């Protein structure tokens, strides 16, 4: 059956060629289409970054305008899809709702199946980028037992998300521009990260020719786990559990104990063996948002800073090159903004949808692409005969 290499966890297997995102894990460098994440976060909006990721170049003013208009045009959900929410328990985890709703988009846009047509592909990409904030916000409203808020075209992408999350029909709502900008930066920092578990899942699902909505739903399912996108939620739960700066030492000790499965959530990364550049930017966003909202003395933020300080001085973490990752600070920012803990991973999914769909499109337009089919090392019993019932 031919030779292959056993590589559990894909530590040394490159699964594809890609021109989208570059990571230098030793330097702590992240580039989208060659541009450093620091410059993009500082100078571009998330939708400009989305355009860049897909098209390979930043949009000029006219292209930006047209792209933003197209996204706004598709932000609404079909009424039947809105009624689909009612099938979930009211306390359903919003990630469970997202897996379902995004997968269900497949049932609404049949032309998405024919993705060899560039126009159809473009429509699917626009629909996903446009509808994800609406889907996330409606999951939140559903959990809260509040009326869905429809998207507003006079607001930008992040402001509109805040409006759909936090506005109610009874009162005037104006998104705080500093907070909206911080949210936009969070989206940019999460937009793509080359062949991580969820992106690889999207590619593997897409390699069979499955439709893009089904593939993104698979990516959302994979992102949910606490070793991946679920880490921001797990990190905040951990900070709540630690509760007080005086208990940080105890938890650091647990994280180092081989017999204890506890890990410091928001710490460590498969590729970054230096400070995660996204975490550095997120830390600054955290300062900005807490400052704007007058929460500089936030208990959890102080706790996080102390945890980081102690861990970065501890030999165990230094030797293993364990630094805070993007999820370490993103939860604190989101909590300060008023996003509940269970929604953190949904916000990650909203932003990463841009990377997933870009990677999906790169794959299916690559003339060399084949169905993904990993091999295995079989360790089960050798051939044997089925015994009669009396002999079992
Ligand atoms: N706390 C304590 N020890 C850790 C941690 C941690 N967070 N992460 C790794 N280690 C130790 C681990 O015990 C092992 O030690 P030893 O060599 O003595 O056995 C060593 O560091 C290497 O760990 P590994 O599990 O082999 O590394 P990996 O590349 O397979 O795992 C990881 C990477 C991100 C899954 C892991 O660091 C982890 O579980 N971190 C916590 C969860 C987390 O924050 N995930 C978010 C990742 S970034 C954003 C995203 O992908 O969503």
Task: Give a topology summary.
Elements: E1 21-24, E2 29-32, E3 35-36, H1 37-43, H2 46-55, H3 61-73, H4 79-84, H5 94-104, H6 118-144, H7 157-166, H8 177-190, H9 197-206, H10 212-223, H11 231-242, H12 248-256, H13 277-292, H14 299-313, H15 315-319, H16 326-337, H17 344-364
Antiparallel strand pairs: 1-2, 2-3
Helix pairs in contact: 3-6, 5-6, 5-10, 6-7, 6-17, 7-8, 8-13, 8-16, 8-17, 9-10, 9-17, 10-17, 11-16, 13-16
The chain binds carboxymethyl coenzyme *A (CMC).
Report the sheet with the most strands, covering strand number, pairing sense and barrel closure: 3 strands, antiparallel
What number of structural domains do the residues give?
2
Radius of gyration from the alpha-carbon trace, in angstroms: 22 Å
What order do the helices and strands follow? EEEHHHHHHHHHHHHHHHHH
CATH-derived architecture of the largest domain: Orthogonal Bundle
Ligands bound to this protein structure: carboxymethyl coenzyme *A
Our estimate of the beta-strand percent is under 5%
Structural class: mainly alpha
Gross morphology:
globular
CATH topology descriptor of the largest domain: Citrate Synthase, domain 1
Spell out the CATH superfamily of the largest domain: Citrate Synthase, domain 1
- Arithmetic mean of pLDDT: 95
In whole angstroms, the N-to-C terminal distance is 33 Å
What strand line-up does the widest sheet have?
1-2-3
How much helix, percentage-wise, in residues?
A: 40-55%
Number of strands: 3
- Per DSSP, the total helix count is 17
**What quaternary form is this?**
single chain
